[in-house]
């Protein structure tokens, strides 16, 4: 890596997760304006695909490629810790997680000491809790979730006692709710969602009563809205749909939202909720499009945005919304690119950013976005 200097410390914001820090300055009445940089990281599923990296133009949403990083064999998923200090990449065929320190001023990825860390066979998705204390990885080879504690100083992973924890067949996607109390796993092979409570001290998982909960066919992705009230699952079938659930704040149990499932395109592989909780976006791999929905803040029900679905690249596998809620980005698996869109703040409609799509690595499978204060 070209930079091995000390990392500039800053505030990181991933999706809707943020960590507070002191603004500093001359006084409370005149704090200096905060300066942020925005980075996009894409896990490429080619045998030696590694991670592609980009900066975001905060005004236009356009991407500029920066130095990426090699990872393991068939990088499948990428997640950023909420401080913006570390990136975690699952490598399916090498059965491990590569961990990188993020250089705040440039976005460069620097492998930490001890990386990669063993996970178990066929790690799919990785998720970090909102406090940045724990990492959870869906393990396809054992139908389970591996849990790790995160060293806050180094980013290193240590297995949680009792890990791995049993999930369903092909645990393709993992998500943690904004409170850090619950974890959810989309089990692609059996059409269910496993729900767990998280031990706040140890990171251990305990199955929620009633879990697993029925979803649609081939659930490939699960996302939680920023209020923690609703869970959304992309069911990868044709025709495809999104299952919506209300989350019990007390127990983490899921209850199907009235009207669910909601129609999407063919083979929906990924679902994301914008940071305001107003809109949901679904990457339809089989129909090369993005379905956009308005989220009912009271019921969780979805209503299609006018003009939806919106054209994407070839076989879009992953969709993410930037922390400001202004832009959406889509990893196009078969066209080796990232599509970028401006989001209409009133309607949720998508408009392609000038210059989109932007070239990525071979077979981009997953996309993550971080904002870091400089």
Structure overview:
This protein is mainly β. The chain has a domain at 12-269: Methylamine Dehydrogenase, Chain H (7 Propeller). Helix content is 0%, strand content 48%. The protein has no helices and 36 strands. The protein has strands spanning 12-14, 17-18, 36-44, 51-56, 63-69, 75-80, 86-91, 96-102, 109-111, 117-118, 123-128, 134-139, 144-150, 157-159, 165-166, 171-176, 182-187, 192-198, 205-207, 213-214, 219-224, 230-235, 241-247, 254-256, 262-263, 268-273, 279-284, 289-295, 302-304, 310-311, 316-321, 327-332, 337-343, 350-352, 358-359, 364-373. A six-stranded antiparallel β-sheet has the order 2-1-36-3-4-5, with no helix packed on it. Strands 6, 7, 8, 9 and 10 form a five-stranded antiparallel β-sheet that branches. Strands 11, 12, 13, 14 and 15 form a five-stranded antiparallel β-sheet that branches. The protein is globular, with a radius of gyration of 19 Å. It starts with 11 loop residues before the first strand and ends with a strand. 60% of the residues are buried. Residues 1-11 and 15-27 have low confidence and may be disordered.
Short description:
With 374 residues, this protein is an all-beta fold. The chain has a domain at 12-269: YVTN repeat-like/Quinoprotein amine dehydrogenase (Methylamine Dehydrogenase, Chain H).
Topology:
Blueprint: E1 12-14, E2 17-18, E3 36-44, E4 51-56, E5 63-69, E6 75-80, E7 86-91, E8 96-102, E9 109-111, E10 117-118, E11 123-128, E12 134-139, E13 144-150, E14 157-159, E15 165-166, E16 171-176, E17 182-187, E18 192-198, E19 205-207, E20 213-214, E21 219-224, E22 230-235, E23 241-247, E24 254-256, E25 262-263, E26 268-273, E27 279-284, E28 289-295, E29 302-304, E30 310-311, E31 316-321, E32 327-332, E33 337-343, E34 350-352, E35 358-359, E36 364-373
Antiparallel strand pairs: 1-2, 1-36, 3-4, 3-36, 4-5, 6-7, 7-8, 8-9, 8-10, 11-12, 12-13, 13-14, 13-15, 16-17, 17-18, 18-19, 18-20, 21-22, 22-23, 23-24, 23-25, 26-27, 27-28, 28-29, 28-30, 31-32, 32-33, 33-34, 33-35
């Amino acid at each position: 890596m070209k930079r091995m200097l000390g990392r500039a410390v800053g505030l990181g914001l991933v999706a809707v997760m943020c960590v507070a820090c002191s603004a500093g300055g001359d006084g409370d009445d005149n704090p200096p304006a905060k300066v942020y940089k925005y980075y996009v990281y894409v896990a490429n599923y080619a045998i030696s695909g590694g991670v592609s990296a980009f900066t975001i133009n905060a005004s236009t949403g356009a991407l500029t490629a920066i130095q990426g990083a090699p990872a393991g064999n068939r990088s499948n998923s990428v997640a950023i810790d909420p401080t913006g200090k570390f990136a975690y990449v699952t490598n399916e065929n090498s059965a491990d997680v590569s961990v990188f320190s993020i250089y705040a001023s440039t976005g460069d990825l620097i492998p930490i000491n001890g990386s990669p860390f063993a996970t178990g066979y066929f790690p799919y998705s990785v998720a970090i809790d909102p406090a940045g204390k724990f990492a959870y990885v869906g393990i396809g080879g054992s139908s389970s979730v591996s849990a790790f504690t995160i060293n806050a100083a180094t980013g290193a992973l240590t297995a949680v006692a009792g890990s791995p924890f049993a999930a369903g067949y092909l645990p393709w996607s993992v998500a943690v709710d904004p409170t850090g109390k619950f974890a959810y796993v989309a089990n692609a092979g059996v059409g269910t969602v496993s729900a767990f409570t998280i031990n706040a001290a140890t990171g251990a998982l305990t199955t929620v009563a009633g879990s697993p909960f029925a979803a649609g066919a081939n659930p490939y992705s699960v996302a939680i809205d920023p209020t923690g009230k609703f869970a959304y699952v992309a069911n990868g079938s044709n025709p495809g749909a999104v299952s919506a659930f209300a989350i019990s704040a007390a127990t983490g149990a899921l209850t199907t939202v009235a009207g669910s499932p909601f129609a999407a395109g063919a083979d929906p592989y990924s679902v994301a909720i914008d940071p305001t909780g107003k809109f949901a976006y679904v990457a339809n791999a089989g129909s090369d499009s993005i379905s956009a929905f308005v989220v009912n803040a009271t019921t969780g029900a979805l209503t299609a945005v006018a003009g939806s679905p919106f054209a994407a690249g070839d076989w879009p596998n992953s969709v993410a919304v930037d922390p400001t809620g202004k832009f959406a980005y889509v990893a196009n698996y078969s066209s080796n690119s990232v599509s970028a869109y401006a989001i209409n703040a009133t309607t949720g409609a998508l408009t392609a950013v000038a210059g989109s799509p932007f070239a990525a690595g071979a077979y981009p499978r997953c996309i993550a976005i971080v904002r870091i204060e400089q």
